[in-house]
Design brief:
By secondary structure, this protein is an alpha/beta fold. Helix content is about 30%, strand content about 15%. The longest helix has 15 residues, at about 170-185.
Length: about 325
């Protein structure tokens, strides 16, 4: 393996400019009814993990809004993904507001991806106001089958916080993940989690989540942090709990009031190199529809060889 590149000395657009005053915005959506914690069942005991991390090895991309991803053209998505050496697609399939809604996309995408040797991991957003109801629609996603019998290769729950409208607590997430674990069976269950900064490491329930999942997928959106340093911190803190698949930044944080610049090709390469050298199972990027040509080309040129994906039937 070639020598590791040096950390990046400077990132364009950093430090981020002061945030200008913003007009008031509506609070994030959340379900209207909160099931009290006292009314929740006991969380299922952890166990029954999958031994197959193949679906999240190597490089991947996240798909959020299908019409904004290659115009929703499945053939174009698969063709471009394969040319870039991607091993998996992470595709949004549901949330607490709409339940499992991804069947029509999966019907077309999963068989095509499997024929091209790529895995498909469904991801979804449980708000945890009713973890039992969230477990039910998660089960429907994992029960889905295409006409040819193919299934999702795994499922990832996007575990957010109150800033996104989620009612996060250790008990709520344990109840939900216990149900999701049972629905996943021998297939992969992943927790998409916040990057474990000092503040979040002290407050976010990583240790409650770990026994239920096969891997963590931390959102390593580095902003003005050196991307290799951000990746290293995430792996150092989470790898002792579970294997780690890193999610890198492929969007401009300016509209959120942060660094107003898309990551450079050097940042993309640095993130991938540190992830691979640091022992991550793989790395993917949020999000396909915002990844520019420079980032895409850098990602595609980075070699991360893995065994062929296994078709879930």
């Amino acid at each position: 393996m070639a020598p590791a590149p040096a950390p990046l000395a400077a990132l364009a657009g950093c430090p981020a400019p002061p945030r200008p005053p913003r007009p008031p915005v509506p609070p994030p959506w959340h379900p209207s009814v909160l099931v009290p914690e006292a009314a929740l069942p006991e969380p299922a005991p952890p166990g029954g993990l999958s031994g197959d991390r193949g679906p999240i090895e190597g490089k991947g991309m996240w798909v959020w809004q299908m019409p904004a991803t290659e115009g929703g053209d499945v053939a174009a998505i698969v063709r471009r993904a394969r040319a870039a050496g991607l091993r998996q697609l992470w595709v949004r399939v549901g949330d607490s507001r709409h339940g499992f809604y991804g069947a029509s996309v999966l019907d077309r995408l999963v068989p095509a991806a499997h024929r091209a040797g790529m895995a498909v991991v469904g991801w979804a957003f449980p708000y945890l106001y009713d973890p039992v109801a969230d477990g039910a629609w998660t089960g429907r996603a994992l029960d889905w089958r295409a006409a040819d019998g193919s299934r999702l290769d795994g499922f990832s729950a996007d575990i957010e916080t109150a800033t996104e409208g989620t009612m996060l607590s250790a008990r709520r997430v344990a109840v939900y993940l216990g149900l999701a674990r049972r629905a996943a069976g021998s297939r992969l269950l992943v927790a998409t989690v916040f990057r474990p900064t000092d503040r979040l490491w002290a407050t976010y329930p990583y240790t409650t989540i770990a026994p239920y999942v096969d891997a963590f997928a931390p959102m390593v959106y580095w902003g003005c942090t050196e991307p290799g340093a951000a990746a290293t911190e995430a792996m150092a803190r989470l790898a002792p709990l579970r294997p780690v698949h890193l999610i890198g930044q492929a969007y401009d944080m300016g509209p959120e009031g942060g660094r107003s610049a898309a990551p450079s090709a050097d940042e993309t390469r640095r993130f991938l190199d540190v992830a691979r050298r640091g022992g991550a199972t793989g790395a993917s990027f949020w999000v396909w529809q915002h990844m520019n040509v420079e980032e895409w080309d850098a990602m595609a040129a980075f070699a991360w060889d893995v065994a062929p994906a296994r078709d879930q039937r």
